[in-house]
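step=encode ok
step=design start
structure_in=
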């Protein structure tokens, strides 16, 4: 049952990030609702409403056709314009910030829902149009269906106004950074809470001589059903070590699984079915992507073609908060079931993560004194944060030393060098 649930969850996470997901649902809903209304009209729904509130219903078939046709043409124009705006947003975000931002923008539910409202209303109006007879009298017209078509069109106009407002906000860098920050914090806090619930000591056996098994798929190692694998381990009296961290891009026949006991093909197949691969990355599945995205935003902002140090400074502020939260997480990840540790998962260690981020930023920003000062302040803040591992602070101090050395070799003015030395002297 766990495998079925995991596969369903993996499939859902894949399709919900697709821009056509919600529009497709609304389209199906509009189609079904249109035929439901046709059925209810055949049972005399409009006649009942006409007797009670005649002012709300159209009394002439030609008038009804004209109204629905006008609504339909306007909605198609709105939908085309809205899709064009979405494509423009994606293009600008890719060129100005980072192509890695596209999956997150595409999966924005607000854009998908608004486009879905358009599409569902258009399909409803089309099939309602078929049920109207030109020249029909008021007692033979689907008056309720026409009234609903008008109401749905008004809702689309309201949604279009909100869409324009939301689009103007979505393209702003502060909104993009906020979204990345919130998604990464949610994911990190979820992982930290799980670690707190499982008080696991680092007594996992040495895996160097364990049986090694290889990946059967290409793609990003996106997610894993730890409960399902732990159940397999418990049933077969073994322990598993996943040798690659989440978010890694794996090729076929690369070492992925180590087992304390030898596994047959059937058990291996069950384990592989509990691991999902994809061609894209989402922060909700892998918080490391947030560090990559913010780093690329900083590098893009500091490139000669963009030259926007303000954006780089904002991104460093967000990086500082996420790094501080990451220091509350262990470097090693385990999974416990029935008070027994069955699974160990390789993770990107804090020192490695900090180095990867700082190495990229140093290369492109060491010439800018303001950015270097901001990075020093970030590292000083991290150094005074409570950490689960003393090695975290050692890694921070090492990055400070490397950054200062690189910056001093780059600066040409004595004042910049003096300010930097004084700032580091307070470390």
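sequence_out=
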């Amino acid at each position: 049952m766990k495998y079925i649930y995991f596969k369903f969850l993996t499939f859902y996470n894949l399709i919900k990030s697709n821009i056509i997901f919600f529009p497709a649902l609304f389209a199906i809903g509009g189609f079904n609702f249109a035929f439901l209304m046709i059925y209810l009209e055949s049972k005399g729904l409009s006649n009942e409403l006409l007797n009670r509130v005649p002012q709300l219903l159209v009394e002439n078939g030609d008038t009804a056709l004209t109204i629905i046709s006008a609504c339909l043409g306007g909605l198609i124009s709105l939908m085309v314009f809205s899709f064009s705006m979405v494509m423009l947003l994606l293009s600008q975000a890719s060129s100005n910030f980072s192509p890695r931002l596209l999956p997150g923008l595409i999966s924005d539910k607000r854009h998908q829902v608004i486009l879905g409202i358009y599409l569902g209303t258009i399909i409803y109006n089309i099939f309602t149009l078929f049920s109207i007879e030109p020249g029909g009298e008021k007692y033979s017209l689907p008056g309720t269906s026409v009234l609903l078509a008008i109401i749905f069109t008004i809702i689309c106009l309201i949604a279009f106004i909100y869409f324009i407002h939301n689009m103007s906000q979505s393209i702003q860098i502060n909104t993009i950074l906020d979204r990345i920050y919130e998604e990464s914090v949610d994911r990190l806090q979820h992982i930290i809470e799980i670690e707190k619930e499982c008080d696991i000591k680092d007594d996992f056996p040495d895996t160097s001589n364990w049986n090694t098994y290889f990946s059967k798929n290409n793609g990003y190692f996106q997610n894993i059903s730890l409960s399902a694998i732990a159940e397999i381990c418990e049933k077969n009296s073994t322990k598993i070590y996943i040798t690659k961290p989440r978010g890694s891009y794996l090729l076929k026949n690369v070492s992925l699984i180590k087992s304390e006991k030898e596994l047959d093909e059937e058990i291996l197949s069950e384990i592989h079915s509990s691991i999902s691969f994809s061609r894209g990355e989402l922060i909700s599945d892998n918080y490391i992507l947030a560090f990559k995205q913010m780093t690329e935003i900083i590098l893009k902002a500091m490139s000669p073609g963009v030259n926007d140090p303000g954006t780089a400074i904002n991104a460093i502020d967000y990086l500082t908060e996420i790094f501080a939260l990451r220091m509350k997480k262990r470097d090693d990840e385990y999974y416990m079931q029935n008070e027994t540790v069955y699974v160990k998962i390789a993770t990107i260690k804090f020192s490695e993560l900090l180095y990867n981020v700082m190495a990229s930023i140093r290369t492109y920003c060491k010439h800018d004194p303001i950015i270097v000062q901001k990075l020093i302040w970030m590292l000083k803040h991290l150094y005074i944060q409570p950490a689960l591992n003393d090695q975290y602070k050692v890694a921070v101090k090492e990055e400070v030393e490397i950054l200062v050395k690189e910056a001093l070799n780059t600066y040409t003015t004595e004042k910049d060098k003096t300010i930097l030395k004084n700032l580091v002297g307070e470390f």
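step=design ok
step=annotate ok -> The beta strands are 211-214, 219-224, 240-242, 249-250, 255-259, 275-278, 333-337, 340-345.
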